[in-house]
Amino acid sequence: MHRRLIVPGAIAASLLLAIPASAADFTPGASGIGDPYYPASGNGGYDVAHYDLRLKYQPGTDLLEGTATINARTTQNLSRFNLDFGLTVSEVRVNGKKAKFARTGDQELEITPAAGLPKGADVTVVVRYAGKPSELKVNGYTAWHRTPDGGVAAQEPEAAVWWFPSNDHPLDKATYDVSVSVPDGTQAISNGVLRSQSSKLGWTRFNWRSNKPQASYLTTLAVGKFDITTDKTEGGLPVINAYSKDLGDNAGAARASIERTAEVAEWLETVFGEYPFNALGGYVPNVKSSYALETQTRPFYSPAAFNNGSNTSIVVHELAHQWYGDSVSVHGWKDIWVNEGFARYSQWLWSEKEGEGTAQELADHVYAQRPADDPFWTVKPGDPGPDDQFHTAVYDRGALALQALRNEIGDEAFFAILKGWPKAHAYGNAKVGDFVKYAEKTSGKPLAGLFDTWLYQPTRPEAPAAKAAGLTRSSAAHTAEPKSWKKIAATNTVHDHGHEHEHGRKH
Ligand SMILES: [Zn+2]
Q1: pLDDT digit string (tens) for 459-479?
Q2: What pTM does this model have?
Q3: Ligand 1 centroid vs 329 CA: distance in angstroms?
Q4: Which of 33, 235, 425, 455 has the smallest number of CB atoms closer than 10 Å to its CB?
């Protein structure tokens, strides 16, 4: 859902009738949206407005059957176009007519409609499919979590390919209706508001709705046996949390953390401004992974995140992403700092509020712990490269950059920026460079040098930059460990998405 000029349908249609394009003017849409980190991600030639997913899932066999109806608008004269998808497709219709389709590469579904689609036309694509997501391997890897009682889709930068066809890149966000039928006694959790739930002949259908633009990787599905808690915030937002019934010894700590979601969101509103969505929550399925993910309105948490007890800091991190990452999304994956630098910094601010170490003390400790020859400093948070997209440096050095900014422009301008940015780019996409410009405009100071030092140089910033950032100690022996340090460090696994280490890069 890019922002665009809305042309009334009738006028657009009459223009198209008046100037018929010849077949030669219709060309295939690109097989990628143009992200150099992940060339196969997303597609060209159209823009999705809405996904309607009607699914049936069998926890016993992992069989997922679905019909995806996609409302899109063409951005060029299209002879054919791609969706990103891996399960087995039985039928594709475009505007009601059967379309030819073929699989190309690992994750491309190439669709040739009966006739070319003119630029600027509203198009409805229906894809019928079935398959077992756990058996679908893309470069030897599945993002789908199989659990003893079901399955879960929650992964970054790609998860959709394993369960629904999409234009799989944050640049094309859309609204969603996700309707899932599962055997009675089992639940289906997704994003947004639960509109309804009904049971018939042994199957229960859950109807979820996300009414604000949502990136495909932030769209989640969890089927399993959950204990569900529901509540409303003081402001009236519905809160739905879900906990696998099999969390064992982690059950208490998971609840003690995630039941504080409304409290954390309320505090984040004082830092980032009004919460951008109409629902809140979190869920903990019985998965073996250790990471968490900011799936929109309802973050995913691995049980292992609570191995050492409750951790509110991880809830702070994932909820901070609702502003920084979900409402304002990356333009390309190289812009990951706009997500992770701020989510990590929000943990420092929470620590500051809780009296467990100020952001400055945490910055000082990070800096002191990392000697100049630590490879940590070779990672450029402003453009880390696909292999280091979720490197600790994107988080910790990324947060150091914000502490340097805070010292440079003062608290008043700094917090005005933290609040103003999510509003300025709400429900859209933004680049690191956009943030630099926004910070310069808001503070009235030239900041290109500061951001170059902290985000783009492959070396440790030394004096005078480090001194200006309040970083005075050069070895860990000289700083006391802030009280929040271990809790925050424990959330370093939030970006340990597993497959980078176990299965090699996907792209
Ligand atoms: Zn994060």
Answers
A1: 999 988 898 888 877 666 667
A2: 0.93
A3: 12
A4: 235
